[in-house]
Specification:
Length: about 475
Amino acid sequence: MRAHSVLIASNRGPVAFTLSENGALTMRRGGGGLVSGLSEVVRDTDVLWVCAALSDGDRGAVRQAPGGRLDEAGNDTGPVRMLDIPPPIFHRAYNAVANSTLWFVNHLLYNTPIAPQFDTRFRREWESYREYNGAFALALAEEAAHDAKVMVQDYHLTLTPAMLRVERPDLRIAHFSHTPWAPPEYFSLLPDDVAAEVLSGILGADHAGFLTARWASAFMDCCETFLGARIDRGDRTVTYEGRTTRIGVHALGVNGEALRARAAEPDVESHMTAIRDLVGDRKLIVRIDRTELSKNIVRGLAAYREFLGRHPEWHGKVVHLAFAYPSRHDLPEYREYTAAVQRCAKEIEDEYATDDWDPLILNVHDDYPRSLAAYRLADVLLVNPIRDGMNLVAKEGPILSERCALVLSREAGAAAELGPDSLLVNPFDVSGTATALHEALILPEDERIKRGVRLREAATAMPPHRWFEDQLAALS
Ligand code: F6P
């Protein structure tokens, strides 16, 4: 087995496999923001990517690969080791702890009169999360060369850095959080020992990265409150049990050139023609999201409804294109949320649609070229998450539409860079969002263009390869 000098670890990997009825495996690119950013970085390099098998298709592929090394089984993947973690352990770690607990805490999503409830069932789930993190630590320890750099990604793998350090004290370890971080008053929902384990797990790294200064400082506050760690806010360091971890802020951006090139391809052009045929010369308000609780799609639709109620002069002259593609359907909250989005859309149609005007087009199927087409045609882009680590949609939109006005939640990490040139909203303020939609529609042309230039500059300031190189440099 070759030892690698740079390794990435993340739950979702660069590829995913589908098992057909006749048992054949088809490989495709893995989904999500983290994967697309990192895939661009590691293309044509020797970085080993360690990830989990997420489906029966993935497990089938791992079983055909020596030691889980997909590349060594003849797949055209680049160096990838996929871990076949037993399904019950994987599901408890991924669905119950990572997505239903840590994601909910860091995005402030709980309906607290009812949830969370940390009981004996949770303790079993937590044990699985430990095992899952341990499996990553073990694989990384096996694959890393002496003194290698290991880049551990996200809330799925908060315990891995500390576990890996025990196995391999020679390694230089980084952890990066692609989510927001909760303030101590909300992080305190977690049982004390779990809170401490998450924080000290990340502090096993030499460098802990965040997307904005706000999330980095919430993490430091939590380390102070729950671990009694020593914090140097000026130098951005946390010292705990004799070790110091540097805290970094790395605001992931977009490779504008690559995105524009992809959006100029014929499949995107034909979607643009189809959208134009559908909406004519009406103004277009666009949103593109995973159907994700934190994305605040229901309040976004409610705001559009209120806007239509307050502005009859826009009836027949505007269309809201809402793309909400499927996500995490193993979780009942997400299935219910998708239904709530569909209900809300139906109510808007029932109230306002006429024979020759469809005020809202909701689509819940993922179609990347169609999303790119929508960006290119957008007059207004609505990005109103309850809370978001960064939100790359807010950055991609202005890159593809020169005259698109951005209505942006002040709780998205992207607001730190894009705020001055956006119409910022409080995501809970439906009426305020309705007002912002109107202001965005009537924003004068020269103002759109001026803001667009600055938005594009900010959105492309830190393309994925620089973002990654900066973190590698921070480990040196
Ligand atoms: O925001 C964190 C993140 O890992 C994103 O990078 C990604 O788009 C999303 O969560 C994916 O979640 P999942 O892997 O559960 O679909």
